[in-house]
Amino acid sequence: MTEPASAELTVETIEEKLQKFLESRTKQTWDPDADLFKLGVVSSLFAMELVVFVESTFGVFVEGPDLVLDNFRTVRSMSALVMRLRPGDPGA
Amino acid sequence: MTQAEERAATAAVATGEQPLIKCLVWDLDNTLWGGTLLEDENVEVTEAVRQVIIELDARGILQSVSSRNDHDHAWARLEALGLAEYFVLPRIGWGRKSDAVRAIADELNFATKTMAFVDDLPSERAEVAHHLPDVRCYTAEQVLELLGLPEFTPAVVTVDARRRREMYQAGFRRKAEREEWQGPDEDFLRTLDLVMRIGRAREEELVRVEELTLRTSQMNASGVHYPVDTLRSLLSTERDEVLVVSLTDRFGPHGPIGVMLIEKFALVWHVKLLATSCRVVSFGVGAVLLRWLTDSAARAGVHLIADFVRTDRNRMMEVAYRFAGFGDHDCACRSALPAADGVQRLHLTPARQEPPSTMRVLAPELRVRGSVEATWATS
Ligand SMILES: [Zn+2]
Predict the structure, then answer these.
(1) Which residues of B touch A51 (CB under 8 A)?
(2) Which CATH number do you get for residue B219?
């Protein structure tokens, strides 16, 4: 039996994918706890790209109260959001 | 053209079947100048043709070149004639002209039905018409008639139409530098010396404001179209603010790139419309605007409520609002606004904000009527 892709997601694999994306997009490396928004105002385009990347890569949909800056502030907060929202999560 | 034909053409333009031309692509030999450059180093342009070029430029119609010649040779002649500056994205070489016209349209992000092509050779016009049936083709004899044709005659020449070509040229230089830049985007933005000016709209800017409410689908929060007359009526009230946002940097002006309509109640400011041009979205304009508005409201001691109507294209705007802290929470201030069906009302209790590090912001003090623009600074 094959598991659905989301079942293989671990915090480590999620964070690795996020870090790769961020590095390609910002041309710098990001620690899991580094604040992406600390340096200044992030463009709406970048914010949108981040949201779309998280949704399309991990098969989740982020809206309403989940669509807040704090959930996207660090690689770690994004992986926590994905773990919480991923399909089949018993806590969802 | 007979009078009837002329009326029909005008009607076609008016109904949008024949949209206005946004870019005219010129052939050079025996079209723009008399004779062939390969045979005569000193080909000349008549005064009448020069006036056509200058006037089309003033009307905000871009002009480009597709010519079978050696690029450097032909461009040097255009420079010597004092005309090179009028042309963007010239395609001078030996390829197919339909490819040149298509490439120019793609680079400008214009539909081919807004492109025109003028060439003395029937074979070239036929080749372009065959591959790009939407492109309107003109003969060399028609050059002196172009200014009288409805498709080259915008109903209104907006404030920035005269500077459109300059803005595109600045845009190409900016884009080239950005592509070469090796570091993080934000550092690149800091090299641009960006200045964002938020100003109360003047009468002569209303046409452009209306245009912005129509054309900025990705970054338009409520998708409402505000006709000029409605906008004009808002200019004279105490309570309404019609704000126009423009941006410049060391490459030149971007022109008006955003609009915000706000109705000010005692305890809450109601943002009825926020729209910014897609061209500048990567500069963080929307986020900076929201941050400035948040700071202004905090200083005025009022809450903010923003209208949002989801379309299939404006999710970026919702992300911008929610990342700026706007949300669905309840607040007593909501009752100050008249009810509206189908509109999401995003609420924010504002706190003071730092100005951005990527640009200087010039803006009036919103709580003070008639206040002049000043640099937004922490104080
Ligand atoms: Zn409130």
Answers:
(1) 319
(2) 3.40.630.30
Total of domains in chain B: 2
- The interface pTM score, or ipTM, of the predicted complex is 0.86
The answer to whether residue B339 sits within a structural domain is: yes
Does A92 reside within a domain? no
Whole domain around residue B146: which residue ranges? Answer: 3-155
Distance of residue B135 Cα from the nearest chain A Cα, in angstroms: 33
List, in order, residues 6 or more apart from B224 with CB less than 8 Å away.
B213, B272, B273, B307, B309
Residues in A touching B325 (Cβ below 8 Å):
68-69
pLDDT in tens, B323-348: 999 999 999 999 999 988 889 999 99
Closest C-alpha to A57, from A24, A90, A28, A91: A24
Instruction: Say if residue B328 is exposed, middle or buried (CB neighbours under 10 Å; 0-12, 13-18, 19+).
Output: exposed
Task: Tell me which residue range forms the domain holding A63.
Answer: 11-85
Across the interface, whether the CB atoms of B185 and A72 are under 8 A apart is answered: no
- From the list B184, B186, B281, which residue is nearest A44 (CB)? B281
Report the CATH number that the domain containing residue B88 is assigned in CATH.
Answer: 3.40.50.1000
Residues of A in contact with B323 (CB under 8 A): 42, 44, 47, 67-69, 72
More confident: A10 or A8: A10
* pTM score, whole prediction: 0.75
Partner residue facing A47 (CB), from B323, B325, B358? B323
Q: Cβ of B282 under 8 Å from any chain A Cβ?
A: yes
B24 occurs within a structural domain? yes
Segment B65-82, tens digit of pLDDT? 999 999 999 999 999 999
In a domain, A35, yes or no: yes
- Count of structural domains, chain A: 1
Cα(B339) to ligand 1 centroid in Å equals: 15
Residue type, B79: E
Nearest to B324 by CA among B299, B296, B355, B288: B288
Position B160 in a domain: no
- The SS3 assignment for B355 reads coil
State how far the Cα of A50 lies from the Cα of A55, in Å rounded to an integer.
9
- Asked whether the beta carbons of residue A40 and residue B319 sit closer than 8 angstroms, the reply is no
In a domain, A91, yes or no: no
Distance from the alpha carbon of residue B263 to the mean position of ligand 1, in angstroms: 15
Say whether both B150 and B222 belong to one domain.
no
Residue B5's pLDDT is: 47
Residue A59 backbone class (left: φ over 0; alpha: ψ -120 to 50; beta: rest): left
The CATH number of the domain holding residue A69 is 1.10.1200.10
Q: What's the gap in Å between the CA of A16 and the closest CA on chain B?
A: 20
Does residue B166 sit within a domain?
no
Q: Which residues of B touch A26 (CB under 8 A)?
A: 184-186
CA distances for A63 relative to A6, A69, B80, B153, B178, angstroms = 19, 12, 59, 46, 32
